[in-house]
Design a protein that fits this description.
Strand 13, helix 10 and strand 14 form a beta-alpha-beta unit. The protein starts with a strand and ends with a strand. 28% of the residues lie in helices and 20% in strands. The radius of gyration is 19 Å and the shape is globular. Strands 6-3-2-1-14-13 form a 6-stranded mixed beta sheet, sandwiched between helices. A 6-stranded parallel beta sheet has the order 9-8-7-10-11-12, with helices on both faces. Strands 4-5 form a two-stranded parallel ribbon. It contains 10 helices and 14 strands. By secondary structure, it is an alpha/beta fold. The protein has 2 domains: 166 residues, Medium-chain alcohol dehydrogenases, catalytic domain (Quinone Oxidoreductase, Chain A, domain 1); 136 residues, NAD(P)-binding Rossmann-like Domain (Rossmann fold), CATH 3.40.50.720.
Amino acid sequence: MGGNGLCHSDLHAVDDLTCSPPHVDIQLPMTLGHEVAGWIEALGPGVRGLDVGQPCALTIAGCGQCILCAQGWNNYCRSRGKQVGMGLDGGMAEYVVAPVGAIVPLRSLAPWQAAPLTDAGLSSYHAVKRVLPLLTPGSSVVVIGVGGLGHLAVAALKATCAARVVAVDQRPQALELATSMGADIGTLADDTTAWQILDATSGAGVQAVLDFVGVNPSIQLARQVIRPLGHIVVVGRGGGSIDFSPHGLPYGACISSTFGGSKLELMELLALAEGGRIACHVERHPLSQVDAVFDKLRRDEIIGRAVIVPDGH
């Protein structure tokens, strides 16, 4: 192990004994950690094309046989089953066992830099790619919640399109981070947020909204500012909902949810990071302090992404 990103999904596993995806049962004891990167220590029987000592990151392993896997959507494979850190022992340890289909080799990135890109970065990049066709020059996109995932969405948007990026969060520090990642506008979430966004777009609204919170107020904000033919992508697992009716959204607008991203998308994202186009804001902490870092995450005190590294690294 070289690094493991800490995620709110890990908090749900600790506090509620729930796992994402929800059909995966947690059987104790289980080592947490699904944002994994490190070096290959040993190869299992029959593994080819990889070398001991090679740096790598892990992605979601699909079954490799279904039509979704054949189309490249391993993240949506319905037979993917248990994953590293999500049913299988994960990366908050000195070593982890991983299926060969989950391996993505690294080139110049250190494992601790790559680890948060495997979920926080990949989930954000996948959401960005879903709306990229709408983000032509002169367009606008809103990112709601610019924490561990959202700040990477801002970076991915600035690296891949010319749209104006509006960041929304309740924390001034998060907005400062979003601005440093390239956000054109940062606004605190309050009762005037929708009006501010509409005013900035001359009343027309935005082509896309990426919601990394997923509670009722954030989804309602997205509904208020999306324009006809726009796309709302709800990535956050906040439990919010929307009443769908013919007048619930502007004509032609759509709303969708996501889970992770594909192996190909992780390769693309790592290439962007290795080229200096995207970087994650990281707090590094030793494995021996993981309980204290969990408490910081519960208190919403992590700006960017916390990465756990083995003691001495």
